[in-house]
Amino acid sequence: MSILETANRSVLVVGESTEPAVSALTDALDGIEVEEAADVTTACSIETVDCVVVAPGETPVSTVVEAVREVDTDVPIVVFRPTTAVTPGAALDAGATDVVPADVADATRLLVARVEAAVENRRREREHVETTNLLDALFERIPLHLYVKDTEGRHLRVSSAYTDDPEQFVGKTDVELYDNANSGNAHADDMRVITENEPILHKREPLIHDDEGRFDATGLRDHYSDDPFGDETLLDSDLLDDADTLEDGHEGWVLTSKVPWYDADGTVAGLIGVTVDVSQQEAYRRLLERQNERLSEFASVVTHDLRNPLNTAQGYLELARETGDDEYFDRVADAHKRMEELIADVLTLARTGTDVADCTDVDLASVVADAWEICCEPGATLDVASPLGTARADESRLRELLENLFRNSVEHGSTSSRPQAEDSVERGSTRTRAWPDDSTKHGTATADNEPETDVRITVGLLDDDAGFYVEDDGPGIPEGEHSRVFEPGVTSRKEGTGFGLPIVRRIAEAHGWAVDVTDAEHAETGARFEFRYDAAPDTVTPRPE
């Protein structure tokens, strides 16, 4: 029930001789208040009146009409005066909407019928205005993509929450508006709703809207920025800034419902649809999935990898108690050290998510040197093959990435780990390679100050793209295993945790970098990890000459 259906309806009778009209209207009109006044200036508020009756009197009809129209331009005015006082034509010319001659047979009965019809029309007009205003408010103010389409799937009306120009949609189908495969699927859904007379409810689908900037939480925030809404009523867009929250190459996800729309005869005249952006919910879903994956990884470590050194420590502790041999305590300590390493790697993996803090222009060579100080071992050599320039990165996370790469190369690159073919380089020999003249070498020395070369690690800029590489001359990674090295827990070393390279990948992806592993280019054997900034064009400064 509308507000108008519960509001009182009223008729105002104006004139010096109002009695016949007031009596007839009061007796015949049930539920309609009838008021009277000698002139408009003494009448009640005309805005609340549904019809004005001009009764017999000396005041010209035109004067009454003008006074009424100054207050309400739409209220119906019925002139009830004798034809000897004013002709119907003159009354209509003066601006009246209807005339009932007061000197004809059954004049009061005819007046009642005309006034009742006028009041009913007035009520319908007001309800129409009320409905139109409500519909306009829905399409203009509600923060949803609301639309109406005809039987061909052409837009008849579109809400303005996600577009500055709703009229651009009118008369066009989704296929005509958007040149992509998903628009065809949306139009097929439209036709199914219309032809089969069946609704589609809560369908999750990729966003087909071209203006992605409006179809998200930030766009809504901008659209309603001048409205008196508190921040708590607006969507949080922070999570959507994370590039990893999008999936399958789509710019966002929506939840769509479409229902048939019927005309007065009950025939399907089109459809009404509503689409709401659920990209944030999808982001949270994916975040929870990643967290669950990590929990599974941690559970694997706790139940398997940590159990082994724990059982070892317990066994040697029992032997020490039984034999009193202190040597077993050293083995217990080794087992504890192993558990400490595992716990440290697990904690690192736990905090290595998709966020990076305070990216700045970082001198890459300086970070490489700092990471090498932590990871260098006797016999390991680091070469910086060229000026590295700067990268926009979180310095501490970048150092962590390099430390894990260096540690991986050092731990896998000992001479005992290398192939022993006749053409392999033996421990302590100097490999002949065409290193750039301006390369910088960092290494440890033997007693005679000759560098020992168990493993040689090179850091340089990519030739074909913006980015850098880290390469070693160790045993390398078998073909077919390149994609698996980034999986948590995968390692070729008995004492390895298998978490170093997954940490590397997650830090790279947190920066928006692409990471690939290939065979070494500057060595006969070895692995090469390449990091490309192209996934985040603003990440790197121009390559130094």
Under the CATH scheme, the architecture of the largest domain is 2-Layer Sandwich
The radius of gyration computed from the alpha-carbon positions, rounded to a whole number of angstroms, is: 41 Å
CATH topology-level fold name of the largest domain: Heat Shock Protein 90
| Class inferred from helices and paired strands | alpha/beta
- Distance between the first and last residues' Cα: 77 Å
Question: Can you tell me the number of structural domains?
Answer: 4
**Morphology call:** rod-shaped
- Given this structure, which CATH class of the largest domain is correct? Alpha Beta
- Report the β-strand fraction as a percent range: 15-25%
CATH-defined superfamily of the largest domain: Histidine kinase-like ATPase, C-terminal domain
Average pLDDT rating: 76
Count of helical stretches: 14
- Number of distinct beta strands: 18
Binned, the helix content reads 25-40%
